[in-house]
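Here is one chain, start to finish.
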Amino acid sequence: MPAIDDLPQISTFIREHNLSAKKTLSQNFLLDLNLTSKIARLDKDYPLGSILEIGPGPGGLTRALLAETTKKIYVLEKDARCIPILNQISDYYPGRLEIFLGDALSTSVLNQIPSPIHIFSNLPYNIGTELLTRWLDPPKWPPEWTTLTLMFQAEVAERIVAKPGGKNYGRLSILAQWRSKAKITMRLPPEAFTPIPKVHSAVVRIERLEKPIHKANSKILTSIVANSFNQRRKMIRSSLKNRINNLEFVLEKANITPTKRAGEITIEEYCCLSRIVESLQ
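Its structure:
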């Protein structure tokens, strides 16, 4: 595959700027521009909106996104050491890269970017789940973002797309699939990264729905699901006994067998359960 631009290789940037990956930031750099180009092409809808990349690091995915579209790219980076590299990329693509310095867990830039927004990220393993949870459960729905194309530890990716009855099905599965469509679109071995992590990785593409697949109060649903999976090995009549009054009656009304465990209950059943609980409040 030909070079995507005339800038130095990512490894050269890293060497010139003495940019070693920090364990405290859970950094694993993806240096292969062929791979980042494949990731950039996974979301065919982004020409219709703005592109936001979280944690661009030395800019491998950033460059691929800039090469794949003529649109302006927005990036949010916590590590100030990466800013000089991103500035060099910005100089090469004048007027097309806007850089924000900040922590994605405490800095929101969604209200500064034109909607709809397509978010890309090679998420640090230590904050990936937390960020995804926030994006999937915002104060209002639909949110500012339209699609999420995110790199996760493979185990987390499997949890996002898991179906009822499987060992990976859980709170994250329900949160992701209740109001969006989620699919694993790419898998990467540890050797694709520097430094080499101990785990495999996968890219998940999440497309928001305009409304949930089943009606439910978000706060009640997420509370019930969290309580259920906090004790996932127990029968649902045990795991929710301190959360729901008249539980046996509520389960019967929702047509949920009390001896079922959390992982055996479908999203539709959890939503039904939450509606009944809300009606009794």
